[in-house]
Amino acid sequence: MVSKSFLISFEYQLDRGAITIQLCAEVEIHCNPTYYAVRDIRSPHHGSCPAIPEVRIIKKASGWVHCDSQKSTELTRSIGVALDAFGRRQDPDERACRMDI
Which domain holds residue 89? Predict the structure, then answer.
Protein backbone atom coordinates (compact mmCIF):
# COMPACT_ATOMS: atom_id res chain seq x y z
CA MET A 1 0.00 0.00 0.00
CA VAL A 2 1.35 3.42 -0.98
CA SER A 3 0.57 6.07 1.63
CA LYS A 4 2.29 9.08 0.08
CA SER A 5 4.20 10.08 -3.04
CA PHE A 6 6.41 13.14 -3.47
CA LEU A 7 9.46 14.51 -5.30
CA ILE A 8 12.92 15.17 -3.87
CA SER A 9 16.16 16.59 -5.19
CA PHE A 10 19.56 15.69 -3.83
CA GLU A 11 23.28 15.81 -4.46
CA TYR A 12 24.99 12.51 -5.23
CA GLN A 13 28.75 12.52 -4.70
CA LEU A 14 31.11 10.31 -6.66
CA ASP A 15 34.80 9.61 -6.15
CA ARG A 16 34.69 10.57 -2.45
CA GLY A 17 33.14 13.94 -3.18
CA ALA A 18 35.38 14.89 -6.10
CA ILE A 19 32.32 14.90 -8.38
CA THR A 20 28.86 16.04 -7.31
CA ILE A 21 25.78 15.40 -9.43
CA GLN A 22 22.43 17.09 -8.82
CA LEU A 23 19.60 14.52 -9.13
CA CYS A 24 15.86 14.40 -8.54
CA ALA A 25 13.53 11.45 -7.94
CA GLU A 26 10.00 10.38 -7.16
CA VAL A 27 9.55 8.76 -3.75
CA GLU A 28 6.70 6.54 -2.62
CA ILE A 29 6.25 5.57 1.02
CA HIS A 30 5.06 1.94 1.26
CA CYS A 31 3.61 0.21 4.30
CA ASN A 32 3.94 -3.15 6.07
CA PRO A 33 6.82 -2.84 6.48
CA THR A 34 7.47 0.85 5.87
CA TYR A 35 10.03 1.47 3.15
CA TYR A 36 10.72 4.13 0.53
CA ALA A 37 10.69 3.27 -3.18
CA VAL A 38 12.86 5.84 -4.95
CA ARG A 39 12.37 5.81 -8.71
CA ASP A 40 12.87 7.95 -11.78
CA ILE A 41 16.26 9.06 -10.42
CA ARG A 42 17.51 11.51 -13.02
CA SER A 43 19.19 14.80 -13.71
CA PRO A 44 16.66 17.61 -13.37
CA HIS A 45 18.03 19.34 -16.48
CA HIS A 46 18.77 16.50 -18.90
CA GLY A 47 15.83 14.56 -20.28
CA SER A 48 13.36 12.28 -18.63
CA CYS A 49 15.24 8.97 -18.77
CA PRO A 50 16.22 7.61 -15.33
CA ALA A 51 19.97 7.64 -14.70
CA ILE A 52 19.81 5.11 -11.83
CA PRO A 53 17.40 2.18 -11.41
CA GLU A 54 14.79 2.20 -8.64
CA VAL A 55 16.09 1.67 -5.12
CA ARG A 56 14.18 0.68 -2.00
CA ILE A 57 15.51 2.06 1.24
CA ILE A 58 14.61 2.12 4.92
CA LYS A 59 15.81 4.17 7.86
CA LYS A 60 17.57 2.24 10.58
CA ALA A 61 19.21 3.53 13.75
CA SER A 62 22.51 3.42 11.85
CA GLY A 63 21.14 5.49 8.93
CA TRP A 64 19.53 4.92 5.54
CA VAL A 65 20.13 1.47 4.03
CA HIS A 66 19.06 -0.63 1.05
CA CYS A 67 16.11 -2.88 1.94
CA ASP A 68 17.67 -5.99 0.41
CA SER A 69 21.29 -5.80 1.60
CA GLN A 70 20.71 -3.70 4.74
CA LYS A 71 23.86 -1.78 3.75
CA SER A 72 24.41 1.93 3.54
CA THR A 73 25.90 3.42 0.37
CA GLU A 74 26.64 6.93 -0.80
CA LEU A 75 23.36 6.76 -2.74
CA THR A 76 21.26 5.79 0.30
CA ARG A 77 22.98 8.44 2.41
CA SER A 78 22.40 11.13 -0.25
CA ILE A 79 18.73 10.20 -0.67
CA GLY A 80 18.34 9.94 3.10
CA VAL A 81 19.59 13.50 3.61
CA ALA A 82 16.90 14.70 1.17
CA LEU A 83 14.20 12.56 2.83
CA ASP A 84 15.13 13.84 6.28
CA ALA A 85 15.03 17.43 5.02
CA PHE A 86 11.68 16.79 3.33
CA GLY A 87 10.33 15.33 6.56
CA ARG A 88 11.36 18.44 8.50
CA ARG A 89 9.65 20.69 5.93
CA GLN A 90 6.55 18.65 5.04
CA ASP A 91 6.20 15.99 7.77
CA PRO A 92 5.03 13.12 5.48
CA ASP A 93 2.05 11.35 7.03
CA GLU A 94 3.05 7.78 7.87
CA ARG A 95 0.16 7.15 10.29
CA ALA A 96 -1.60 5.01 7.68
CA CYS A 97 1.39 2.66 7.67
CA ARG A 98 1.30 2.22 11.42
CA MET A 99 -2.47 1.61 11.49
CA ASP A 100 -2.65 -0.77 8.52
CA ILE A 101 -1.99 -4.16 10.18
Answer: 2-99
